[in-house]
Amino acid sequence: MTLSLPGKELSAAIRASITGGARLAVVVATEDEAALWYVRSIAKAAAAVGIACDIVEPAPEADEIRAALERLSADPGVHGVMLQTPLPAGARLQDLASAIDPAKDVDGANPLSLGRLAAGLPAFAPATAGAVMALLDHYEVPLEGRRAVVVGRSTVVGKPLAHLLLDRNATVTVCHSRTRDLPSVTAEADVLVAAVGRAGMIGAEHVKPGAIVIDVGTNPTPEGGLTGDVDAAAVEGRAGGLTPVPGGVGPVTTAVLLRNVSLAAT
Ligand code: NDP
Q1: How much is the pTM?
Q2: Which atom of ligand 1 is nearest to the CA of 245?
Q3: What is the dihedral of CA 245, 246, 248, 250, to 10 degrees?
Q4: How far is the CA of 163 from the centre of ligand 1 (A)?
Q5: Which of 14, 85, 177 is the pocket-test mutation for ligand 1 (most atoms within 8 Å of CB)?
Q6: Ligand 1, residues 14, 87, 216: which to mutate, most atoms within 8 A of Cβ?
Q7: Structure confidence by residue, pLDDT tens digits, 88-111
Q8: Where are the domains of the chain?
Q9: Edge-to-edge strands, sheet with 23-27
């Protein structure tokens, strides 16, 4: 049987540990519906734990976005600064996020934060990568000496996660769209993380019997719902545990983000 590894209880525990009083600013320069929904959910969750959340909407031009990030980074009343993606044409996250003060970079978007993470120095990791680690710890999944395979190498999920897993003494492999014979690599994993954005692409052949599978993927369904990168029906009975989508990594990500804001304020 495959254990379901939901994020609800962990998310609630993280939120309960947060001290209020901090202020987060989310810079939004997109009209993407899913992104706006996510920002609204952050604001709602922030309010529930006593964190003020300002939604700042600069004109959708790179210079204007950069100016907003610089102004908020310099504002002593703002503890966390986040830039919501997707960005308008002509604006790139890796260029603009360098304007976020690393001390306020609660979603680990500044390339300096990733560099510090890679160097084993204290830094905020992107909240999603932090959420995967929090889930693995919550469910007491052993990492030391284990094979961990991350499918996806984005700077938001795959790369920071690889560093976090390495710090915990896992033996880490990162796969991507050019990886040859993906199933033969992922089937070596004791811990498999799927962060691709392709519904149901991880099937039984990708999973070692008993492996813990963390599904980061959030793919819209025709019915207006969400589904993961893992074909849950196909891996049922083969995986040892699987995070559901929705209700797995997603709620923990928001909680980790807010915890980062509260840490940035201390
Ligand atoms: P990106 O599109 O930035 O990265 C996707 C990665 O998947 C790339 O590294 C790409 O490889 C790799 N990839 C694409 N196709 C394949 C394939 N056939 N085989 C193996 N690897 C492949 O996505 P993100 O990292 O931003 O997001 C990944 C997923 O996670 C999405 O579904 C997103 O919605 C979700 N997500 C969920 C969050 C949450 O809180 N639950 C937060 C953030 C993201 P290459 O580099 O070679 O192109």
Answers
A1: 0.97
A2: 41
A3: 120
A4: 17
A5: 177
A6: 216
A7: 999 999 899 999 999 999 999 999
A8: 18-110, 127-250
A9: 52-56, 23-27, 80-83
Phi, psi dihedral angles at 117 (to 5 degrees): -60, -45
HSE (CB half, 13 Å, CA atoms) of 29? 23
Q: What is the pLDDT of residues 143-194, one digit of tens each?
A: 999 999 999 999 999 999 999 999 999 999 999 999 999 999 999 999 999 9
Site of tokens 């996660």: 161
From the candidate CATH numbers 3.30.460.80, 3.30.365.10, 3.90.550.10, 3.40.50.10860, the one assigned to the domain spanning 18-110: 3.40.50.10860
Whether the upstream peptide bond of residue 86 has omega within 30° of 0, thus cis, is yes
254 lines ligand 1 (CB under 6 A): no
What is the whole-number distance in angstroms between the Cα of residue 152 and the centre of ligand 1? 5
CA 131 / ligand 1 centre spacing (Å): 16
DSSP state, 205? G
Ligand 1 atom closest to the Cα of residue 85 is: 26
